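Lay summary. Proteins are chains of building blocks that fold into shapes, and those shapes determine what they do. In this project we predict the shape from the chain. Here is one chain we studied, written as its sequence of building blocks.
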Amino acid sequence: MTKEHEIIFAGFGGQGVLSMGRLIAYAGMIEGKEVSWMPSYGPEMRGGTANCIVIVSDSRISSPIISMFDTAILLNQPSIDKFEKAVKPGGLLIYEKSTVINPPTRTDIDVVCISGNEEADKLNVKQVANMFMVGAFLEKRPILKIENIIEALKKALPPRRHNLIPVNKQALTRGSEIVKLADSISA
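And here is the predicted shape, written in a compact code that computers can read:
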């Protein structure tokens, strides 16, 4: 049976939405999987809305255009309002706590709340807030190896930004730990 995972990343421009999707796609390519990365953003980009659809598959992807997702990683309230209903029953929705006023209400999906902005503040590097989400996602749905996300970062970041790779790795690991802790408490 073919394994395929369809993900939507959405939020305001500048929150790293497109970067998260690109890293997942790069890591999928590193692992020899078929991938599709389809970004969508308004003309104002930073501060406007942005989203991207990523598909990671063991076999050819028939179409990058989809309307229902296995996972949604949502970084603001407008994204929750727009995409909560687009998560398949049994799917996963991860959201950023500090930018969501009305949390998701569905009971037929797994919902994970992450304080990525708060965690990034603790590291004094606001730019890694999105990496807590990626770490949480890969803990819940281990479709890719964390080490390949780090390899993807090396390809995606310009050499002058490679000094940020260790703190990105810290954020990935911490995102995973937050989910493990929450799961152990609810068990």
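What the prediction tells us: The domain at 4-186 is CATH 3.40.920.10 (Pyruvate-ferredoxin Oxidoreductase; domain 3).
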